[in-house]
Amino acid sequence: MVWKGGKSTVVRAMLATAFTILIVSTPCGVAYAGVLTMGERGVWETYSSPSVRTFPHVVLITLDGASKLWVDRLIVNNTLPTLASLKAEGVELAVRIVDHQTVTDAGLACIESGYGPGITGVDQNYFASTTKKSVPDGLTTGERIKETYPTWKVGLVMPWTQGRVNVTSSVDSTLWNQKGETDYWFASENVTWSLSDPDVRRNSLDFFSALLTAGFVSSKVAEFISANKGDSFYIRAHFVEPDHAGHANSEAVSGRITPEYREALVACDRALKTIVDALEDAGIYDDTVILVTTDHGFFQGSHSGSPYPFGEDDVTTVWLVSNRAEVRNPLGWILQNDISPTCLALAGADPDSFTPAYSQTSHALAAWVPNETLREVTPPSIASVNYPSQTSVGESLSLTVTVTDASGVYSVILMYNYSTVGWRGLTLTKLNGTAFSGSVGPFNQEFTVYWYVKAVDGSISGNVAYYPADAKPVATPVRGAVPYWTLLPVAALVVAAVGSLLYLRRRKFGARRTGLEGHASPA
Ligand SMILES: [Zn+2]
To answer: Is residue 152 domain-shared with residue 173, that is, in the same domain?
Structure first.
């Protein structure tokens, strides 16, 4: 409670109180919420299952830290013509990161194995750590393709070091265990890292971190394609530019993409063109499925945080573009865990034949839908939200939300924003089977509190429902208020003042009338 005396404060408080009394507190708002339609982040589409086709050539490219927001916008305005053309030919899906922190190593481990940190152990970045973690032997797409088809060629091209080089101590070993099954392995350690080497001078994105440009990485992929066009193959490559630019310059400032982040995405798109051209030159493009995706998004210059649906949407919901409509699915979105089993299915391998089973986490893509019922996609049902239409200075905003879901309710979060606080989340406390409650405040001054409720179910999909259904925030005013007892003397003074005024006016008026009457009277 903040209550300060002083003339102007008292007057303001009186006015505010009068206003409050005038409009009187209305009863609690009770409202019924619908189900969020997720738009580009995952919408149910009219869907007819395409015949599953397999491909002798599978190409998987990741753009490090390329956010869906900016990739989508630059596809629409044709700043990324290669991605635009792949998407026009095939499909774009939203990708949810659901079981790991949104960092590179955990993302690459998930993309390449289909498993979360519970199985891979890769739960964070290990570039700079003295401990190095790798996806356990045998679990990656490349290893499983090699296990299924010994004659397939497997390639991996990475922009940073998988082994120590002389200029950096940052070494990443996430995919190290697949080296034995990889026919073509090109990474930063294959370059001299001597400044006198023209290859290094031309192709290093960051000399002291031993990072190679997307252009150089793609030229190595093109060499692999040309050399192996007569064989079936799986080639995997990673471009680092967007993450590098995002950390150095942020992805956007005041809602506009930074020139550096934009150029990074453009460089990746040009590199993709090099790979598409190599496939066409080799005469195998029509038998190739290309998948392009990212390890995590970007938001306000960073990306580390909780997974979907708890972290920032621009970080936790990413994208996948493929040149083949076969990769469409009925949901419009997949989990990052689906990418590896889908690559296997596209190559003709049966994801169900591998252990540990993917069954609980990976079956969204049309290429592999062994058990649709395991993926529950129904959002929670928000039956009611009880909240006051306004609150007062010195008081809190309290809500009670009733939520049900067949998979159980994982959490109900009140997202709120007032003054200069910025958006924050408050996990509501479970009262009984379906009711959750919590409060924000008490507030120390008048302003408007903006809020919405986010309910997350207990399924692996992390289905979300919002109140209001479109997540457009509710505005709840905090009115000025003073303790009633401080108003008693003020009210008494007002009554006394008004009373005195009326009394004086009546006396004065009465006297004048008497006077006039006197003049009017004839003598
Ligand atoms: Zn990354």
So the answer is: yes
Is residue 235 a contact partner of residue 229, using CB atoms and an 8 Å limit?
no
Distance 466 CA to ligand 1 centre (A): 29
Tell me how far the alpha carbon of residue 296 lies from the centroid of ligand 1, in angstroms: 6
- Distance (Å) from CA 87 to ligand 1 centroid: 23
| 231 & 303 share domain | yes
124 and 218 share one domain: yes
Question: What's the 300 CA to ligand 1 centre distance in angstroms?
Answer: 15
| DSSP code of residue 450 | E
Structural domain total, the chain: 3
Indicate whether 391 belongs to any domain.
Answer: yes
Q: Are residues 513 and 403 in the same domain?
A: no
Contacts of 76 by beta carbon, 8 Å cutoff, 6+ apart: 84
Planar angle of CA 75, 78, 84, nearest 5 degrees: 50
Looking at residue 480, what DSSP letter applies? -
pTM above 0.85, yes or no: no
Domain range for 503 is 485-523
Question: Which structure tokens are listed for 262?
Answer: 């934009």
Domain identity same for 78 and 121:
yes
Rounded to a whole number of angstroms, the CA Rg of the chain reads 32
79 and 141 belong to one structural domain: yes
Buried b (16+ CB within 10 A) or exposed e, 195-227: eeeeebeebbbbeebbbbbbbbbbbbbbebbee
What distance in Å separates the CA atoms of residue 337 and residue 363, rounded to the nearest whole number?
A: 9
Task: Judge if 416 and 310 occupy the same domain.
Answer: no
CA angle 301, 307, 310 (to 5 degrees): 90
Question: Would you write out the chain's pLDDT as a tens digit for each of its 523 residues?
Answer: 233 333 343 344 444 443 333 333 333 333 222 222 233 333 333 333 444 688 999 999 999 999 999 999 999 999 999 999 999 999 999 999 999 999 999 999 999 999 999 999 999 999 888 889 999 999 999 999 999 999 999 999 999 998 888 899 889 999 999 999 999 999 999 999 999 999 999 999 999 999 999 999 999 999 999 999 999 999 999 999 999 999 999 999 999 999 999 999 999 999 999 999 999 999 999 999 999 999 999 999 999 999 999 999 999 999 999 999 888 777 788 889 989 989 998 999 988 889 988 755 444 455 544 345 556 778 999 999 999 999 999 999 999 999 999 888 999 999 999 877 788 999 999 998 899 999 998 998 898 999 999 999 887 778 899 999 988 999 999 998 665 666 677 677 888 888 888 877 777 655 444 444 434 333 3
The residue among 354, 374, 394 that closes a domain is 374
C-alpha of residue 138 to centroid of ligand 1, in Å: 23
Q: What is the CATH number of the domain that holds 14?
A: 2.60.40.10
309 lies in a domain? yes
User: How many A from CA of 289 to the centre of ligand 1?
Assistant: 24
Ligand 1: centre distance to CA 242 (Å): 9
Cα 103 to ligand 1 centre (Å): 5
Q: Strand 91-96 relative to strand 317-322: parallel, antiparallel, unpaired?
A: antiparallel
